[in-house]
Amino acid sequence: MIRRTRAEISKCIIHKVGNKYNSGKNALSEDLVSFDQESYELLLPFLLKPFTTVTQSYRFTHHADIRLNEINKYSSDIFEDDSVFIEQSKNIVNHLYEQSNSAQIKSGDVLVVLFENIEYNENLVNAIGIFKIENKVDFFQTYLEDDSFDVVVQKGISTKKLDKGCLILETSDIEGTIVLSVDNNNYDAQYWIKNFLNVKYADDRNLHTQNYLELCKEFSEEVIKPEFGKKEQSEFLANTVDYFKEHESVDYHNFKQEIFEEDKQKNLFEDYKKHFEKLNDVLIRNHFEVSDTVLKKEKTKFKTEIKLDTNIQIKIDIDAPDASSEHLEKGYDEERKMKFYKVYFNEEK
What are the sequence ranges of the domains in the chain? Predict the structure, then answer.
């Protein structure tokens, strides 16, 4: 994630990208945007705010040579000599155009921006931002005509949500240049991340934590829920979150020992881990440091509601691992011929 308190826009240009699949055309600008104070102060936070909460970063990749990655090359040229900014911004938009290989890819405005003084890991760095505005909203515009005011509907860019954007930072680590990305219109996961940017997640604690939590979420849904029940699924997810909160690092073998009481469950988890790795083409690390920021984000995806066919729902707090086992009982009523849950509590809140 970044901090934007000292960030400034050095250069900005706006182009329009078409859809190649639908025989659309690009419309390319020749000059930089000249801001007034009001538009500048509105645009700067609109572009950068989404990246202040981004926890994971990407690195450029290429099947043959990383120097052949188009966005990597164009951004490197700009960092080296910003006099080529306009020329390379056109190359960026033309490269984006070449990726619109289906009817669902939307045309839109593309902003290419050169930033200064973005704070990343306590250092101030320059960055190149590429932003695609795909959706515009209707708004009313009033105007004066013949001494009376009237109203007309116009379309414009909403400042509430950025459709697609990336920040290419002028800094790197052992894996390469650091890239951040957001995509709020993820109708084609391949289009922006893989085809246009051609990036992959950095091999760090963020990725390892996300992969492991995704493994646990899918295991709970595909194995524990059908095999043991929704209550046990909720307990497993809550215990998983608790384990990650209580340990600075995760050890795969220790995790199995603490979470599962029976060998059958341990074996099921081990078998599913192999299936998950093969299905998703990922490697689940046996030992890694926990990313608290990823844990906080990913645990919101864990579903612990027990929905019953009698229009009653029981929601278990994901941060209370003992709540289900200590205060929730499942049974069967012979007289009614129905299953039941018995909930213990002291008072209603």
Answer: 8-133+163-202, 206-343
